[in-house]
Specification:
Blueprint: H1 2-28, H2 44-50, H3 55-58, H4 73-80, H5 88-98, H6 119-124, H7 129-133, H8 150-159, H9 166-169
């Protein structure tokens, strides 16, 4: 009986470890995050890798520069008015544009509200989109390539001689 309990306990520990590994893989592996199915299928590999579009073509950085925007249907239709119009996905896109509806893109990366972050400041300092988001031009369906957390930010700041003072990215606690 004691051996059976030991075997069951060992099995539970192994199972928990495998589950943790699987969940971590879903966060930063080549598998898109659960619930990350986009409303319109979009290939970064085709548009960035194949067509050579720049990130800023679709991801605008309005003032003050903290966030990068997501493509609007009207922006997409500037090219797709005449390109692949027989595609069901482009037809969905055209319907969004015609009805002037926002596409509810699923964000893959989200900066927590307690972090001060400026995309523009990072780009001005020499970072590229690939620094944080990986080689998007090689990705068919976007997934979280790199984990964005305090450790990854601190490592990058240290490697690039940027400030690691807490208040550089976080509000001072009273």
């Amino acid at each position: 009986m004691k051996q059976l309990k030991t075997v069951l306990l060992f099995g539970c520990v192994i199972g928990a470890c495998l589950l943790a590994i699987a969940q971590t893989g879903a966060q930063t592996g080549q598998t898109p995050l659960p619930g990350s199915k986009q409303p319109i299928a979009f290939s970064h590999k085709l548009h960035v890798g194949g067509q050579g579009l720049k990130c800023a073509t679709c991801h605008k950085n309005p003032d003050p520069g903290e966030k990068m925007g997501l493509a609007s249907a009207a922006l997409c239709m500037q090219c797709h008015e005449d390109v692949k119009t027989d595609s069901p996905e482009i037809q969905k896109l055209a319907a969004y544009a015609k009805d002037k509806r926002d596409i509810k893109w699923v964000r893959i990366y989200e900066i927590p509200s307690y972090v001060f972050f400026s995309h523009r400041a990072h780009l001005d300092a020499g970072s590229t989109c690939a620094t944080c988001h990986g080689e998007v031009k090689e990705i068919e369906q976007m997934y979280k390539v790199k984990e964005m957390n305090m450790a990854s930010c601190m490592n990058c700041h240290q490697a690039n001689n940027a400030s690691t003072d807490c208040t550089y990215c976080h509000e001072k606690m009273n």
